[in-house]
Amino acid sequence: MHVVVNAATSADGKLSTRRREQIKISGADDFARVDRVRADSDAVLVGVGTVLADDPHLTVDDADYRDERQSDGREPHPARVVADSRARTPTDARILDDAATTYVLVSESAPADRVSALEKTGGTVVTAGDTRVSFPEAFAELEARGIDRLMVEGGGEVIFSLFEDELVDELSVYVGSVVLGGRDAPTLADGDGFVESFPTLDLRDVERIDDGVLLTYDVV
Ligand SMILES: NC(=O)C1=CN([C@@H]2O[C@H](COP(=O)(O)OP(=O)(O)OC[C@H]3O[C@@H](n4cnc5c(N)ncnc54)[C@H](O)[C@@H]3O)[C@@H](O)[C@H]2O)C=CC1
Ligand SMILES: Nc1nc(O)c(N)c(N[C@@H]2O[C@H](COP(=O)(O)O)[C@@H](O)[C@H]2O)n1
After folding, report:
1. Which domain holds residue 173?
2. 97-106 pLDDT tens trace
3. Which ranges carry the Bacterial bifunctional deaminase-reductase C-terminal domain (predicted)?
4. What ipTM was predicted for this assembly?
5. Which mutation among 58, 81, 171 tests ligand 2's pocket best, with the greatest number of atoms within 8 A of CB?
6. Interatomic CA distance for residues 20 and 140, integer angstroms
């Protein structure tokens, strides 16, 4: 599976403010680029922290891209995936509507009543890992279901875990011209942090978009 991480940060590396509310860092041209990356993907993944904070829909906005996908024999939207160890996704979350297939990755520790509530709303539950979602295991299952190209939109906890598991192939960071600050504000890669064996990136491209900069890296 080819895994592409895409996120927008402030100039000081934050994904959002200390209140963890959704904040627009990208401008119109960058959101249009993100829509293209979604349209080119088989699935788009976020963590449940992002679902609880942003209630994202994760669908393709541009009708031409949806038509293009359908003329290639694909669904109009990529599948949506939420990493949700304890099945905390609200049943009325936008990610669970019937616009696209939604996979909910849970761990063995997820309460059975929450799992069945998510299944009743139409979510396809994939169990991988004891107390936390095991991405290597879950991704093998997604691959078996035809997901070869996965876009990851965040947040910081999930992005860190994917680097830790050495599952990231490409990283695109849009750096907006704003400072958010806050020691508790989420950053691009949170988790426990690395103290050695840091992931190494190969800078492939630098592009000015809107009033910010898009940095595109291959993971070495
Ligand atoms: N600017 C941007 O591009 C984006 C910003 N955000 C912001 O990021 C914040 C949310 O990020 P986070 O709080 O870091 O949450 P997150 O979206 O990374 O979700 C973390 C949760 O995922 C679950 N999870 C399951 N398996 C896991 C694993 N193996 N490793 C790590 N987590 C796992 C856990 O329940 C964990 O609490 C919000 O403020 C949101 O607005 C989110 C996405 C993109
Ligand atoms: N690329 C990008 N730029 C920003 O400024 C952002 N705030 C985000 N956030 C991500 O976009 C998701 C919203 O998706 P929908 O529009 O609801 O489909 C949000 O959940 C973050 O993953 N991204």
Report:
1. 2-219
2. 999 999 999 9
3. 2-215
4. 0.98
5. 58
6. 31
Entry field: residues in the chain: 220
Q: What is the CATH number of the domain that holds 110?
A: 3.40.430.10
Per-residue model confidence (pLDDT) at position 58 = 98
**Looking at the whole model, is its pTM more than 0.95?**
yes
Check pocket membership of 56 for ligand 2, CB cut-off 6 A: yes
Distance 184 CA to ligand 2 centre (A): 20
Please state the domain count of the chain: 1
